[in-house]
Structures are given as structure tokens and as C-alpha cells.
Amino acid sequence: MSEVDTIGYLIFKKVKIQDANTISSPITYGFPAVTGFLGAFHAISRKLQSQFAEVSLGGVLLACHDCQPNVYRSSPYSNYRFNQSRISLKKDGSTRPIIEEGKCDLTMTFVVEVKATGDLNKAEQKDLQEQVIKLIYQHRIAGGSVVNLDRFQPIQFIDSSEVEKISALLIPAFVLMDAEQDFAEIIEKLQTQNSALDALDALIEVATINHIPETQANGSTKWTTQSIKKDYGWLVPMPIGYQGISNIFAAGEMQNVRNPEYPSQYVEAIYGLGKWVFPHRLKDKLEQAFWYYSYDEENHLYRITQTSPYAN
Asked: Which residues contact 157 (CB under 8 A, 6 or more apart)?
């Protein structure tokens, strides 16, 4: 059997997603969790198998043009609150309860690896594009509905030898990157000041803006702001997967799970740092911007990383 390799990339241009889940974890909100996007394209990949048996979709690059959480506040100094909506009436005409949730509207460009054992000819590439544009409208992405794509070139196929062309097609947008190295440097910097601080303290510090008063010579007070993430770029706390906190239960053993036909495990979210990067900064390393699933069986870690599982 021939080796499966990346033969090209599908670019889903300016995908408008309505009412996506903006609560990405128990303690973060704003941009949806990366797993919400990977899961959608994994589902699309499985459906493609019926017509393209030798083709699958791999890693996903996330480029965000716009993200608008559906929030409001009663005054310029009050906290933001999520807009809530009531779902349809029950069969007997009575009202359903309001389920507290947070939604956002997104405009995204996705670049998805196309894996196959051999190259596709022009006719097969066109057929593939026609199939995926149908499928993306049929699937929820991060809990939201796809309502539109780019008017002129909604789907493009780029050959793997022309990967350098992709960065120009992403502008204007910001690409989500893993900031693991930056996070390690911030942790080390904080621990030189206080050895008792750990990674969670560093994560909280990244999300904090410190307002510091300075008394001037004339007796007035000048306020300045400081943040430990200065000079690191646009850093954001984000969930990066799950840590198992129980043994793995056999299929059908755990009650009230979504998919009882699979083994199940209790998990809790784990966190790291992401970084929004302008595409031109990734021109020579765009292949490092794709997100993948990763599973560490020994440590029960279910992670998303930008380390390709297909690399030798």
C-alpha cells in the first residue's frame, strides 16, 4: 500500500459562522475552542470517504477575520453579559426554560490538509471542492451554523508544492499559533522573582493588566499599565485539550454519555497559551500552523498540538 502524504490544501475562504459557542472552557471565553473546528473537519473527512476512499483531511489552520461575541452591558463601566435567547415552545405550547449560553459570530478562513496515496487530477480536484462545499454547509462548526462563504472563490485547492501562496490568501486575518515556548519563558521569568509561582499563576498573570499609580512632582497621580506579555505579541489563554482524571470505562459501562458505543473517561480541561500572528510572519513556516489531535495513552492526555502526527 502506498504511503499517505499531504498532496495539497483546501482553502475555505471567509466562512461566516453564526452563533458559535464562545465559551471555550470552564474559565475562558471569546474565541471558540480549537477542538470545535477540528471535530467539524474530522466529520467532513469521514463523509468524504464514501466517494474518495483514498482521500482524507488532516491538520487545520485557523485564520480569524472577525469574532464578535453576542454580549451587552448597561453602561460603559458595567460588566459585559451574554445575550440569552429562548428556544422554541414545547409541544403543548408552554415555554421552555432559558439555557444560559454564550454565542459569537465568526468570519474564518480554514486551510485543511488533503491526505492521499497519490495526486489528484484537475477533474478530481474540482469534484472534491464541489463535495466539501456541500458538506461544510451541512455541519455545525464550533456549535455554530455556516451561513456563507466568500462570494468569488469559496473553495480553492492549492498543490502541496505551492504552499507559499497560502499566506497571501489569508490576509486580512490573524492565524492562531501555539505559544508554548513563550509560555515557558514567562513561567521562568516569574519564577526568578518568586520560586513559589507555578504555571497557573503565569497563565493568570498573562490575562492580567496591572494599573500602577505614580505620584508626580506636582503631587498629581499618573496611572500606567503593565503586562507581563509585553513584547511577546498577541497572547491569549486557551484550552489545549483534556486530562483524564479517572480510569477508562468500557463501551456502554458509563451512563448518560453521548456515544455509549465507545470507551469513556472523566476528564478536565487543560490550558496553555495561544498567539494570534499576522500571516506574512508565517510565510516560511506556514506548515507549522496546522492543528492536530494528539493522544498520550500513558498520561491520559487528549491534546491539540501543532506537531504533525504524520511527521517521521
From this structure: 8, 9, 10, 11, 114, 120, 125, 128, 129
DSSP 8-state class, residue 92: T
pLDDT at 203 over 50: yes
pTM reported for the whole predicted model: 0.89
> Residue type for 203, please?
L
Q: Are 308 and 293 in contact (CB under 8 A)?
A: no
Rg (CA), the chain: 22
C-alpha distance from residue 55 to each of 42, 43, 306 (Å): 12, 13, 21
Residue 41 to residue 39: CA distance in whole angstroms: 6
**Which cell is 87 given?**
428556544
3-class SS shares of the chain: helix, strand, coil, % to 5 = 25, 35, 40
Cα–Cα distance, 238 to 129 (Å, whole number) = 32
Of 16, 1, 304, the C-alpha closest to 178 is 304
Please give the span between the terminal C-alpha atoms of the chain, in angstroms, as a whole number: 17
Give the pLDDT of residue 229: 87
For residue 148, list its beta bridge partners.
16
The CA distance from 139 to 20, in Å, is 12
**Distances in whole angstroms, Cα of residue 130 to Cα of each of 46, 52, 135, 166, 297:** 16, 12, 9, 20, 38
For 211-270, the pLDDT digits (tens) are: 888 888 888 888 888 888 888 889 999 999 999 999 999 998 988 888 899 999 999 999
- Give the span between the Cα atoms of 199 and 161, in whole angstroms: 40
Give the separation between CA 114 and CA 55, rounded to whole angstroms.
Answer: 7
